[in-house]
Amino acid sequence: MSKVKPKKHLGQHFLNDLQIADDIVNAMTAFGGYKEIYEIGPGTGVLTTRLMKKEEYKTTVIEIDTESVVYLANEVGLPKDQIIEGDFLKLDFGNIAPHPVGLIGNFPYNISTQIYFKILENKDQITECVGMIQKEVAERIATKKGGRTAGILTILVQAFYDVEYLFTVPPGVFIPPPKVDSAVIRLKRNDRKSLPCKEETFFKVVKQAFSTRRKTLRNAMKPYGLPAELLEDPIFKKRAEELSVEDFIDLTVRIEESRK
């Protein structure tokens, strides 16, 4: 059987560098004590074959491409009960993995942002994630307070995970080569179990603050109809990218209190 052909509509760029594959797999640390790893979008199995050699883990893959599913079973030798054919974004992952797990993958570039939102939905199960994504997105997720690349994912992910930018990956190690550099980042679940505000409100405040990222919070938060005395606080003179996770949590708490 010939190798799987990468499909543009699925955002597939297959890694073709075995050393980088080793580096990605070895970046998993079993943080949180998980015994099972889920790989998203394994494609031709370059990461999968290395994960299968890790006796301390059980490896399960999630793959939407039927051609890849057949290849992984017949050529890579992955047991069929360790292959989930489907769209990770649409799976009820909490039921599939109700216990702590690790997540890994060369994530399809066209859905990488959505994957991290899905991780946040399942943060109580996913204690560690090592993912290869576009460098631009990786820098945005990993940037610190005040970084001009900061965005919605910066705050939401860092509220619940410690993020490490591990290394950059050039286009030439993929088939076909993407038009941008890639990067590998690692997420480890932090100690924050809950927020002192409603999580739904926190997410909405962060998204609204970055909706007009070049404006001050005073202008960005106008749709919330906040009381004038609250808007006088110096924090509303800042832009969203200037705020830390803790700043956003505090801001959300105060917004909720102003509505009581």
TrEMBL record:
SMART domains membership: rADc
- InterPro entries, alphabetized: KsgA/Erm (IPR001737), rRNA_Ade_diMease-like_C (IPR023165), rRNA_Ade_methylase_Trfase_N (IPR020598), rRNA_adenine_dimethylase (IPR011530), SAM-dependent_MTases_sf (IPR029063)
State which Enzyme Commission number(s) the record gives: 2.1.1.182
Molecular function in Gene Ontology: 16S rRNA (adenine(1518)-N(6)/adenine(1519)-N(6))-dimethyltransferase activity; RNA binding
Q: Taking every annotated instance into account, which residue ranges of this chain make up the domain Ribosomal RNA adenine methylase transferase N-terminal?
A: 20-191
Which superkingdom does the taxonomy of this entry point to? Bacteria
Signal sequence, renumbered to the chain: none
The function of this protein is: Specifically dimethylates two adjacent adenosines (A1518 and A1519) in the loop of a conserved hairpin near the 3'-end of 16S rRNA in the 30S particle. May play a critical role in biogenesis of 30S subunits.
HAMAP family on file:
16SrRNA_methyltr_A
Query: Which family, according to the similarity comment?
Result: Belongs to the class I-like SAM-binding methyltransferase superfamily. rRNA adenine N(6)-methyltransferase family. RsmA subfamily.
The protein depicted here goes by the name Ribosomal RNA small subunit methyltransferase A
Gene transcribed to yield this protein: rsmA
